[in-house]
Amino acid sequence: MTGTAFALAAALIAHSAIAATPAQSIPDDSDAAGEILEAQPDADDRMTIGVAIHGEGPYQFLIDTGSQNTVLSTALARSLGLRTGPSTKVISLAGVDEAETARIDSIDVGQRTFYDLTVPLLQDRHIGADGILGTDSLQHQRVVLDFDRNTIQIGDPHDFDRNGSYEITVRARKRSGQLIVTQAMIDGIRTSVVIDTGSSSTIGNRALERAMREHKKGTGMLTSVTGQTLPINFGLAQKLKLDSLEVTNVLIAFADAPAFKALDLERRPAIFLGMRELRAFRRVAIDFTTRKILFDLPG
Hints:
Elements: E1 4-6, E2 10-12, E3 21-22, E4 35-38, E5 40-41, E6 47-53, E7 56-63, E8 71-73, H1 74-80, E9 84-91, E10 96-109, E11 112-122, H2 124-127, E12 131-133, E13 142-146, E14 151-155, E15 168-171, E16 173-175, E17 178-186, E18 189-195, E19 202-204, H3 206-211, E20 216-224, E21 229-242, E22 245-254, H4 258-262, E23 270-273, H5 275-278, E24 283-287, E25 292-296
Parallel strand pairs: 1-9, 7-12, 8-11, 18-23, 19-22
Antiparallel strand pairs: 2-20, 3-22, 4-14, 5-6, 6-7, 6-10, 8-12, 9-10, 10-11, 13-14, 13-24, 15-25, 16-17, 17-18, 17-21, 19-23, 20-21, 21-22, 24-25
InterPro entries: Aspartic_peptidase_AS, Peptidase_aspartic_dom_sf, Retropepsin-like_bacterial
Signal peptide: 1-19
Protein name: Aspartyl protease
């Protein structure tokens, strides 16, 4: 076995109709730089884009800012005739497993090409796509998710307007390739937040659940990209506050997810903020170079 991969894409078996509601404002125009790519929503309302591997494709890859590693489905690896390499440990939201790896010489995302990636191989039925584009391919980029236009922009942060006319800018810290907001508050509880575009819903750790003990709303199951499942308890937070940004009615699935421990986030309240909450905004930009997360509120 060699190395450790970190893949956090996940979906919940149980869903809620409660709507997340950010504060209202009038947004400005979109960023003036960065290639615009058409996105496709998957069954769990996450965003996928078409990529090419070794010049072939397009293949639908999930954009996952919560995953450290780009991932390939086993079916696509077979179709491309890739040789499997040493196994690696994969840490997901629902558990730890081992997976074979393969080497990709090149992957084209629009006009950008990333070279020489060693990727874990996971079952496509668990990924929900042909693969996952993780932060190993996005580290020096700004990724803009435009939910109004259903597009994704990926580009060099220096080519964009500094804050791109966004209404709210939140600073984050970087740990193991992830951007973590450490000054967030959930119902008055200081909470660390990871922006996770690969998860359909927001996942909270047990430390936050204990602090929110009066907010329980039900139970369900979490399914991860490894196919593992994990029991969860639902809770409803009245307010999430990120700097000057406020989101109300935040549904949180609490679980003993190994990913929290891997990021040293298991002892204090923390969440992976998923697509259900992120889609409450017009645009969200994740800038890995400047360690900023930018938001446009709906009009």
